[in-house]
Amino acid sequence: MKLAIENFAKLDAKEKILVLGAMAELGEESMEEHNAILELIGRFPWKAVVLVGGDFMKIPHPYQRFENSTAAKAWLDEQGYENTYWLVKGSRSTRMELVL
């Protein structure tokens, strides 16, 4: 996930939206890895950041958060974003394809 975020951040585009689902199967390192992703996200400018489920729900952060991808999709649809680039990524268990 780290490389995908870094590569997306380098993309020459003004309006970028990051939609990330929790990372599953990380075991004892899960909270540490989710915190590292939050730190990485904070290094770049985003139009919006949407985080879905898992340990993203347990860690304080300033971004939009949703229990599941269906709720995230409903919020994103309400925003009416146009002419934006999106990175949608997450563990299969978060069903991030439903955001699209």
Report on this model:
There is one protein chain. With 100 residues, this protein is of the alpha/beta class. The protein has a single domain (2-99), classed as Mur ligase, C-terminal domain (Protein-Tyrosine Phosphatase, Chain A), CATH 3.90.190. The chain is 32% helix and 19% strand. The chain contains three helices and four strands. A four-stranded parallel beta sheet has the order 3-2-1-4. The radius of gyration is 13 Å and the shape is globular. It starts with a helix and ends in an 11-residue tail after the last strand. The mean pLDDT is 93.
Provide a short characterization of the protein structure.
The chain is α/β, with parallel strands linked by helices. The chain has helices at 2-10, 30-41, 69-79, and strands at 16-21, 48-52, 64-66, 85-89. The longest helix is centred in the middle third of the chain and has 12 residues, at 30-41.
Please give a handful of descriptors for the protein shown.
100 residues; alpha/beta; Protein-Tyrosine Phosphatase, Chain A; 4 strands
Write the layout of secondary structure elements.
Blueprint: H1 2-10, E1 16-21, H2 30-41, E2 48-52, E3 64-66, H3 69-79, E4 85-89
Parallel strand pairs: 1-2, 1-4, 2-3
Which CATH-level-2 architecture? Answer: Alpha-Beta Complex
Return the domain count.
1
CATH topology: Protein-Tyrosine Phosphatase, Chain A
| CATH homology superfamily name | Mur ligase, C-terminal domain
- State the helicity in percent bands: 25-40%
Oligomer: single chain
- Structural class based on helices, strands and sheet pairing: alpha/beta
Give the mean pLDDT. Answer: 93
Number of strands: 4
Major sheet size, sense and barrel closure: 4 strands, parallel
Low-confidence stretches: none
Strand order of the largest sheet: 3-2-1-4
Number of helices: 3
General form: globular
CATH class: Alpha Beta
End-to-end C-alpha gap:
18 Å
